[in-house]
Write a structure and sequence with these properties.
The complex is a heterodimer of chains A (about 280) and B (about 425). With about 280 residues, chain A is mainly α. Chain A has helices at about 1-30, 40-55, 65-85, 90-115, 135-160, 160-170, 170-175, 180-205, 215-230, 235-255, 255-275, and strands at about 125-130, 130-135. Chain A has a two-stranded antiparallel sheet. Chain A is globular, with a radius of gyration of 18 Å. In chain A, about 50% of the residues are buried.
Chain lengths: ~280, ~425
């Protein structure tokens, strides 16, 4: 029974990892840019929700569209002004750029909000279902995360613009030759990726106590999720996130919390050794 | 804002003063002034010469402290404590009849930067005295510098036990070291409640480990049984497995070695998993002014060790709190009180020494006993570690921090057992 409980907790945690990793994965897929500032975009999303909640008492769930919209705009601006210049350049250029952005956002956030530990006090406690305790806030966060991840997946599958994004990811030159404005596609993709990070941040602000350094704690997990699920694969990232969440909590239950945290990296290393493309890497 | 204002003015004055001093020295043939750049070990006192030129020459106290970086907030509070003491001491006629002036630098929460800045304060700015930086890791680095130059330092912002295990002669503690954190809470709260089983859960890093090592010793004296002893990694995002272990062990007390984020995560997930010990205690977290805001009513019933509280009746405490809140327009926390008390101790030591001779000040710091705004008294042992300070215990009751131990400082009594989550 306890083990079932632990697995449920892992699945719920995995939902938020999935949402966060999905944005990062899209950006890598479309422009081969590893966005090291993705964690900071999430952090800005968390602070948007926190500010709206503490200053204007906006319901944290209703503030998700606001934080996503803000980061959509910021993401598109960043892409057009800076990231676009390093697309198809050596990997080091984009790493340096996004690392710089990450440091900049972190520094600004520490100045604006200080290092104080914040949180949004909302939906505490749990539901008791057949002897199992299911965290309300984590369940809601999981539902929102899965809904948003699913919506993005459908958008990429079914909408015309989604198809242009996938075309650009598969072959930018061919896409351009077919008349797709790849510059615009990249800009919008970066915006959507940032918005997904912000939505994850809004959910994180309800689940955890955070300060501007929260993004740094989440970024490595997103990399593990992407490597596990497969670069550019949306379904893979979702499954990868769930596997990561469950293995963290299960490892923590059977050994100690210390070892649980290393699970992400063990998975990462093992996957890179035996199946570098990830579980679903070849599909897309 | 104030520190930016402070540093350049003082530096300017300092430079001008050095020019004048140099000119005076060359024309009058004076060998030394208070700003002797090399330390003067032994009894040759430069301070006597410095007091003579005029009582308006300020006594300059050098401090590098974290006003930016990860400790930027707490470092700033400690600095505000220093500034408040500066104003208080100058209103009373200064130190040895001379005004006190601080020379502040920002170490950006970085130990290497801080030790470099203390080296600069001592060798280039030639400050008369120093006071400690913020945070133990920074203090540990700085102590090597101040020790080398024989500058006595009150380690205002440090609590790591290790600092006083290195044989330093010029480093003095102000508040209880980490291993003493749980002393009062275990003896005066858990003891009388006769709780017999404890789960220790703590972050796997230097401070929490040291706090829990101390707690284990105090628990032995009570013959309390430790039924779970589990570490978790820093920055953990899920402690449900740790709390499932706690629930399985079903202890009377959950004793945490925590920082703010993990203490709040424990509370959230303990509620979710319906973990119901009779008492919760966390080290860092409940003392954070944001703790109640972050957790709402779930913060109630939680206990914590405390270094200082605004409500206690130590001499001058109420007036100090009021002066701070009107001057800085925010609610006070203990970092201000330690900063202010550090100034008070230095004040007393200089009076005792009767001069700014740093070896005499050092001897005074090793021997004096005095009451600051902190509970207990200032008194150090052979190693310079603080032994007179008394840890307190607080409990959050209806969103307010109430001092529940020791008895002479208590503003209320401990409420226990904590009701189960579903009955709150």
């Amino acid at each position: 029974m306890t083990l079932v409980q632990v697995i449920i907790n892992g699945v719920l945690l995995g939902g938020v990892y999935a949402l966060f990793a999905a944005g990062l994965n899209m950006i890598v897929g479309v422009m081969r840019v590893i966005n090291l500032a993705h964690g900071e975009l999430m952090m800005l999303g968390a602070y948007t929700t926190f500010m709206l909640f503490s200053l204007a008492h906006v319901n944290p769930l209703l503030s998700i569209p606001a934080s996503a919209a803000l980061m959509l705009i910021l993401g598109m601006a960043l892409q057009r002004l800076m990231v676009e210049r390093v697309v198809r350049q050596p990997l080091l250029s984009s790493l340096l750029l996004t690392f710089g952005l990450s440091t900049l956002f972190l520094g600004v956030a520490l100045n604006v909000w200080t290092g104080d530990q914040r949180s949004v006090s909302y939906l505490s406690g749990s539901l008791s279902v057949g002897g199992l305790q299911i965290s309300v806030v984590r369940m809601v966060a999981f539902a929102v995360a899965v809904a948003l991840t699913g919506a993005t997946f459908l958008f990429l599958r079914c909408s015309t613009f989604g198809k242009t994004i996938r075309a650009t990811a598969q072959h930018p030159d061919a896409a351009q030759a077919c008349g797709i404005d790849v510059t615009r596609v990249r800009m919008v993709t970066f915006g959507i990726g940032s918005a997904l990070a912000a939505a994850a941040g809004s959910l994180v602000s309800m689940m955890f106590t955070f300060n501007p350094e929260i993004g740094q704690a989440f970024l490595p997990k997103a990399f593990a999720v992407i490597v596990l699920g497969g670069l550019g694969s949306f379904v893979g990232a979702l499954l990868g996130a769930l596997v990561l969440g469950v293995s963290e909590t299960v490892a923590g239950y059977f050994s100690s919390g210390q070892r649980a945290e290393s699970v992400a990296f063990v998975i990462l290393i093992v996957m890179l050794m035996i199946r570098p493309a990830g579980l679903f890497g070849t599909n897309e | 804002m104030d520190e930016m204002h402070y540093a350049p003015t003082v530096r300017l004055c300092r430079r001008r003063f050095l020019h004048i001093a140099a000119a005076a020295a060359s024309s009058l043939g004076l060998a030394a002034c208070s700003s002797n750049p090399t330390p003067a070990p032994g009894p040759t006192t430069s301070a006597g010469a410095a007091t003579a030129p005029g009582s308006s020459t300020p006594v300059v106290i050098g401090v590098a402290i974290s006003t930016t970086g990860s400790n930027g907030d707490t470092g700033t509070y400690q600095q505000q404590g220093y500034q408040l003491w500066e104003e208080a001491v100058n209103a009373k006629g200064g130190l040895l009849g001379r005004p006190v002036k601080f020379l502040f630098y920002d170490d950006q929460s970085d130990p290497t930067t801080s030790s470099r800045l203390y080296e600069k304060l001592i060798t280039q700015d030639s400050v008369d005295l120093v006071l400690g930086p913020y945070a133990s890791n920074v203090t540990a680095a700085v102590a090597q510098v101040t020790e080398r130059y024989h500058y006595p330092m009150i380690a205002v912002g440090a609590a790591a036990t290790e600092i006083w295990q290195k044989g330093y002669k010029y480093v003095f503690g102000l508040a209880s070291t980490t291993d003493l954190q749980y002393s009062t809470l275990i003896r005066d709260v858990i003891g009388p409640l006769k709780y017999s089983t404890v789960a220790l859960i703590y972050e796997d890093s230097l401070f929490p480990i040291s706090e829990i090592n101390g707690a284990r010793e105090y628990l032995k004296k009570l013959e309390t049984k430790v039924v779970l002893d589990e570490k978790y990694p820093p920055k953990a995002t899920d402690l449900s497995s740790v709390l499932t272990h706690v629930r399985d062990a079903n202890p009377d007390v959950v004793l945490g070695g925590t920082y703010t984020p993990d203490s709040e995560l424990i509370v959230r997930q303990a509620k979710e998993l319906n973990v119901n010990p009779k008492l919760y205690a966390f080290t860092v977290g409940p003392g954070d002014p944001n703790f109640v805001a972050n957790l709402g009513a779930d913060a109630d019933w939680i206990t914590s060790p405390s270094i200082w509280e605004p409500v206690i009746n130590t001499p001058g405490n109420a007036e100090f709190v009021q002066r701070y809140e009107s001057r800085f327009n925010r609610s006070i926390d203990y970092h201000v009180a330690t900063g202010y008390s550090g100034g008070m101790v230095l004040d007393a030591a200089v009076k005792e020494a009767g001069s700014l001779d740093r070896d005499k000040v050092r001897d005074a710091l090793a021997n004096i006993r005095l009451q600051t705004v902190l509970p207990g008294e200032y008194r150090v042992d052979q190693t310079g570690a603080q032994i007179g300070h008394v840890m307190m215990s607080i409990q959050i009751q209806n969103g307010k921090r109430v001092v529940v131990a020791p008895k002479n400082l208590a503003t209320g009594t401990v409420m226990a057992p904590t009701p189960p989550w579903n009955e709150r």
